[in-house]
Predict the structure.
Amino acid sequence: MHRFSITDQEFLQFQRMIYDIAGIKLSDSKKPLVTGRLAKRISVRGVSSYGEYFSLLASGQDPGEVQVAVDLLTTNETFFFREPKHFDFLSDHVLSGHSSADNFRVWSAAASSGQEAYSIAMTLKDKLGYRPWEIVGTDISTRVLERARAGHYALEQAQNIPKNYLSKFCLKGVGPQAGTFLVERSLRDRVKFIHANLNRELPRIGEFDLIFLRNVMIYFDVQTKRDVVKRVVSLLKRGGYFFIGHSESLNGINDSLEIAATSIYRNP
């Protein structure tokens, strides 16, 4: 049991805060999640209630603590090679015909702890080899980005990685690192992780041949989806591809892109 309980009014304050900062709509069913994830911070900061903790965040005196709260309330589960048909499309349709010497750039726009970005990196290294390519991963949570940069995961995370990629691009931990694996350095060096809030002005990260914005729009209302997609797609090169989650749609959100395959769009 948590020592503190959260009132409806206090929960509403956190709902509004995370919507204002991240554009994420927390449903009422998420009250236990908010209670659980913030309980430890209440103890750490020595405040006596969720309302007092919110007042601390709202005071503007501790932006570092605001980032901690945002990290705790926005972290989502992800895994390697999620929605494998996207990676098949990437291999068979996008990369098979790519022979340009130009730097091929991919953005993992909601990178979380890095599994998506490294899945893309393995696919690019396999298909493009030593031709120039790079990946940028962004997320609103600084905490998950630290994990992403390390590229170090529990071994059970490896179950969706194709066997040949696992042997080629990952190192199995031994001794004190047993039960874990590390994405090899040559791949990690090609992936740059940067803090970014998709609901604010984006950092200067250039244009991309491919953008993955998957399984994040489900947390946004319609207007936020429109704003985020417009902001993100402005960095997609002409002829570039835009990937969204299989449970997501751009209907009524964006009409500048054309459908290339299920949940994959192309900038004409």
